[in-house]
Amino acid sequence: xxxxxxxxxxxxxxxxxxxxxxxxxxxxxxxxxxxxxxxxxxxxxxxxxxxxxxxxxxxxxxxxxxxxxxxxxxxxxxxxxxxxxxxxx
Length: 89
Description:
Number of helices: 5
Structural class: mainly alpha
Strand content: under 5%
Helix content: 55-70%
């Protein structure tokens, strides 16, 4: 990989950047809201819930993080009887 040994160990022992710490906190908060909704909330609802909590974040950032972590809204199918439709047939 053509990286010096000292450079590698400096990278391994480096503290995470403030942006990385902020992102980790945001991922934790998104996961918390998503789990509380039992996987039913998509990115718009998660975004709204975070805004209500006072978190300054953009909707697209929430959507991107949710996609990276595999969080999708669980969609329930609506059951409709076909009685009228059968009569028309």
